[in-house]
Design goal:
Strand content: 15-25%
Structural class: alpha+beta
Mean pLDDT: 87
Largest sheet: 3 strands, antiparallel
Shape: elongated
Order of helices and strands: HEHEEHH
Radius of gyration: 18 Å
Number of strands: 3
Strand order of the largest sheet: 1-3-2
């Protein structure tokens, strides 16, 4: 019985090892404008474990600070894709993407020519 407890304790410690409480992450997220920025950032920051979220409309780079004990980079990417924005690992469904405002439909090259404003 003591061996089983020691093994379970060791496994519990092992799974927690290597997970950062404040890990800085960054990855590309497709989008065009300030509405995209708001949608991407709000979606991420609402997630348990995301402490900071920022998306740059020019570079298309999303930066975050996450608690890996509560969420992973893949979790964040998947959640962002679920609201219409492709990431390196996940693609938004056509149904969700098609419901984005016209200026946010980044897959159409013509939308990059729209006046997106700096709000």
């Amino acid at each position: 019985m003591k061996k089983a407890i020691v093994i379970l304790l060791f496994l519990g410690v092992s799974f927690g090892y290597g997970q950062d409480k404040n890990k800085s992450v960054s990855f590309e997220v497709k989008g065009n404008c300030w509405m995209c920025k708001n949608r991407i950032e709000k979606t991420a920051i609402k997630m348990k474990g995301v402490k900071f979220a920022s998306w740059n409309t020019e570079s298309k780079i999303f930066k975050a600070i996450i608690d890996e004990r509560k969420c992973s980079v893949a979790d964040v990417q998947e959640k962002i894709a679920s609201v219409g924005h492709d990431t390196g690992a996940y693609t938004a469904t056509d149904e969700v993407y098609d419901n984005l405002p016209a200026c946010c439909q980044y897959r159409d090259p013509e939308t990059s020519k729209m006046d997106h404003g700096k709000h």
